[in-house]
């Protein structure tokens, strides 16, 4: 795998030509950078990811990989799927084989790869997602969190350059969220660029290198502190300011937090606070 830059420009995407979900949206997934796609329910996050994956053809606009436009022919889509993989929000939309190993091997087998290569890819994908101990288990017996990680493993076995994850942490408990994030970090070491959609502004702030907000049928993209500190944009997008920015800004107003970049999570906020109690005069 190697890093590739996935981008969409002038995207008009939707299910009804008269009322597209996205109308002239642009997004760049910079190679090797973590991108979080945020937006309220129904704003069009899934629609955007489906379009970038090639699953949904835009009514207008172009999707490119390293500047080369995606063609929606059979051959074009087949080539695109080897570069870009989408993992759906609900693992039950994705898992259909009897066992975990069979499910994860489905994509590589479909590519016509030799059995030995498929076995190696499956073993690697299961290990990266820390679900190797589940290889022989029937998929329907797994917990929701396990099924979500197995679904990601299925995409990873295709060795995509860009992995698009639709709400990979939704419905997970905090330890399962941490396990998923650790798995994503291992994927990045294997040169996959990871994009996740989420409603969780706090997660986006602490995880992402860049943030894209789907709002008013368009996409606003930028640095996490800029985008998630923009109250006007957040209100338009029906999102809340991340707690770390809200609390950090208030502590700074009170003179309790030194200047510089605002902390992005609890650990860095606590580390930035003075080590003595009491309100400074
Ligand atoms: N297959 C479809 N046919 C018709 N309309 C659809 C279809 N899929 C989605 N939509 C509509 O497109 C809009 C955007 O939906 P989408 O699923 O992309 O939003 P989302 O931001 O991912 O939402 P959520 O956070 O609730 O998952 C919604 O109004 C939805 O009803």
UniProtKB/TrEMBL annotation:
Gene Ontology MF: a single term: ATP binding
InterPro entries: AAA+_ATPase, ABC_transporter-like_ATP-bd, ABC_transporter-like_CS, ABC_transpr_CbiO/EcfA_su, Co_trans_ATP-bd, ECF_ABC_transporter_ATP-bd, P-loop_NTPase
Domain ABC transporter stretches: 6-241
SMART domains to which the protein is assigned, alphabetical: AAA
Pfam name, any one: ABC_tran
Keyword line: ATP-binding, Cell membrane, Membrane, Nucleotide-binding, Translocase, Transport
Membrane topology type: Peripheral membrane protein
Record function comment: Part of an ABC transporter complex. Responsible for energy coupling to the transport system. Probably part of an ABC transporter complex. Responsible for energy coupling to the transport system.
Protein name, as recorded: ABC transporter ATP-binding protein
Lineage: Bacteria, Bacillati, Actinomycetota, Actinomycetes, Geodermatophilales
């Amino acid at each position: 795998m190697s890093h590739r830059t996935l981008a969409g420009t002038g995207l008009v995407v939707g299910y009804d030509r008269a009322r597209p979900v996205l109308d002239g949206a642009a997004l760049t997934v910079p190679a090797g950078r973590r991108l979080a796609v945020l937006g309220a329910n129904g704003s069009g996050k899934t629609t955007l990811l489906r379009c970038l994956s090639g699953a949904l053809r835009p009514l207008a606009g172009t999707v490119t990989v390293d500047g080369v436009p995606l063609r929606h022919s059979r051959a074009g889509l087949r080539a695109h799927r080897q570069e870009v993989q989408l993992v759906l929000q609900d693992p039950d939309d994705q898992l259909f084989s009897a066992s975990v190993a069979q499910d994860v091997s489905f994509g590589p087998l479909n590519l016509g790869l030799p059995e030995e290569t498929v076995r190696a890819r499956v073993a690697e994908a299961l290990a990266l997602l820390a679900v190797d101990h589940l290889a022989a288990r029937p998929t329907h017996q797994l917990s929701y969190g396990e099924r979500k990680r197995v679904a990601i493993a299925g995409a990873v076995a295709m060795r995509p350059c860009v992995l698009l994850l639709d709400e990979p942490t939704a419905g997970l408990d905090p330890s399962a969220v941490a396990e998923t994030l650790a798995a994503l970090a291992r994927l990045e070491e294997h040169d996959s660029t990871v994009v996740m959609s989420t409603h969780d502004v706090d997660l986006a702030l602490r995880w992402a290198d860049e943030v894209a907000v789907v709002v008013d049928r368009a996409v606003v993209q930028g640095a996490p502190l800029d985008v998630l500190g923009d109250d006007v944009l957040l209100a338009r997008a029906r999102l809340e300011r991340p707690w770390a920015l809200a609390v950090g800004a208030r502590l700074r107003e009170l003179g309790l937090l030194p200047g510089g970049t605002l902390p992005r999570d609890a650990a860095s906020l606590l580390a930035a606070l003075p080590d003595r109690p009491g309100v400074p005069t």
